[in-house]
Structure formats: structure tokens, C-alpha cells
Amino acid sequence: MPRPSPTSEAPRRGRPGYDQETVLRCAIDLFNRRGYDGTSVGDLARELGLTKSAIYHHFPSKSCLLQAALSEALDALTEVIDTAVASENGARESAYERLESAVRQSVEVLVGHLSAVTLLLRVHGNSDVELDALRRRRAIDAKLADLVRAAADEGSLRADIPPELTSRLLFGMVNSLVEWYRPEGRYDAVAIADAVTRLAFEGLALRGR
């Protein structure tokens, strides 16, 4: 029977006594430090003090490890944006408020999943797994642009900047945190989220709002 393609593989439960989450965390760290192509399953096994076969009991391939890592970041970001979009019908919040909340929560996702998001931002589309991750990122960008457009249409956000550009700039500000944010630093997720939303939305809001 042919083996499933990398994009369709799912993490296995693993052999009792081993922690699948620890394997994934170590893999993400190595992928960020050495690059995905520069890291082998043997490297991961040596880092953890396990055999390669023990790694394969948790994840059937290296590409499956990458898929799980990227999905961690993408699933969290997608949930934030989809919640903001879904609340459009019947919600009391304006599009502006939902957009601001989406950006704030995106900061919290980045801080909470810093290593996985860092890996996501380094993806270039060199495999089916990476191409799928890029497709999901574009979908998130498009949904955020729709929120920007809705906020401009309701008259609460300046409309002289194209929504797609505003979306890219907002995510660019959020994503830049991976370059300098450290969990042990002086600023926590709430302080950073407050700063990002204030800087972004005080410039985007219409005067007199």
C-alpha cells in the first residue's frame, strides 16, 4: 500500500513514556536554529537522546513535524480572524472594534506561540506543506483586509489607504515582534498588544473619532 503524502499525514499517538509535545517543541527549535532543510530526524533524535525509531513513533516523517509546527501557528491565527469575521452578523461590535480586537489577539497568539510563528514566517514554499501554509496565510490576510474594508465603509477608519495595504502593514507590525520579543523581557503580551493597537489605530482612525 502506498504511503500517504506529507500533507495528509497526522501525528501519531506515540510510544508510552515519550512526550510528543516535547518532540515537537524540540523540532521547532532546531528548525528555527538550523533551518528545516538543515535539520534531520537524526539531529532531532540526538538532541532529545532518543532513537530515530522513537521519533517516528510520534511523527511518521520530518514533513509531518513541519506540518504540525506550522498548523500550531496557523490554527491559532485563523481562529482569531474567523471569530472576528463571524461576529459580524448580529454582533453589537463595530467592524472597527472587531478589527482592533483581531489585531490585539494576533499579538497574543504570536507571544503565546512565538517559536511556531517564527518558523511560519520563514516558510518560502519549498514543499507541499510550505505551499499549503502560504495559502493559509494569504487567506488570513484576505479576511483581515475585508475587516479593514468594512471598518472604512462604516466610516470609522480612514479609506485613503487600500485595505490590502493596511492589512499587510498591520500584520507586518505584529510579525516584526519575532525579531526582538523575548518571553523573559520587560514587556508582557498585554503591554505589547496595547502598544501595537494604540500605535496602529490612532493612525488609522478618522480624526474626531
Automatic annotation (TrEMBL):
GO terms for molecular function: DNA-binding transcription factor activity; transcription cis-regulatory region binding. It comes from the Bacteria. Residues 17-77 form the HTH tetR-type domain. Signal peptide: none annotated. Keywords: DNA-binding, Transcription, Transcription regulation. Residues 40-59 bind DNA. Transmembrane segments: none annotated. PANTHER family: HTH-TYPE TRANSCRIPTIONAL REGULATOR BETI (PTHR30055:SF234), HTH-TYPE TRANSCRIPTIONAL REGULATOR RUTR (PTHR30055). The lineage of its organism: Bacteria, Bacillati, Actinomycetota, Actinomycetes, Streptosporangiales. This is TetR family transcriptional regulator.
